[in-house]
Specification:
By secondary structure, the protein is mainly α. Helix content is 81%, strand content 0%. The chain has one domain. Helix 1 (2-25) packs antiparallel against helix 4 (83-112), helix 2 (32-48) packs antiparallel against helix 3 and helix 3 packs antiparallel against helix 4 (83-112). It is elongated.
Length: 113
């Protein structure tokens, strides 16, 4: 469980750095401010996932879902070999990890009761 949480945190930090790097690569692009904002949010959420608290797991589920949904609506499906595909893939892996952590935490609390 701890390894999955650390993986999700590390992937979110990497995604945050990539989002911020994409902002500085093309700062005049209309979607670049959103990339910067989500980069900061992803980085902070990723760092929070290194703490033992439970609320960062929920944030790790909610923010990538919102970011991926907004990006799909705004930009559509990217070419298979692109930075956007990598960011979508990271988001999907983080979402799966966070769902797994939430489901297993609830199962563990049901077993102890």
């Amino acid at each position: 469980m701890k390894t999955i949480r650390l993986l999700a945190g590390l992937l979110l930090v990497i995604s945050g750095v990539l989002h911020i790097a994409m902002y500085f690569k093309v700062p005049n692009d209309p979607g670049s401010i959103g990339m910067l904002v989500f980069g900061i949010i992803y980085g902070l959420t990723g760092l929070l996932l290194f703490t033992p608290k439970m609320y960062p797991v929920y944030l790790g589920l909610i923010f990538p879902l919102i970011g991926m949904t907004v990006a799909l609506i705004k930009f559509g499906f990217p070419v298979l070999v692109s930075m956007m595909t990598l960011l979508y893939l990271i988001d999907v892996i983080v979402i799966i990890c966070c769902v797994f952590l939430i489901v297993n935490r609830k199962k563990a609390s049901e077993v102890t009761n």
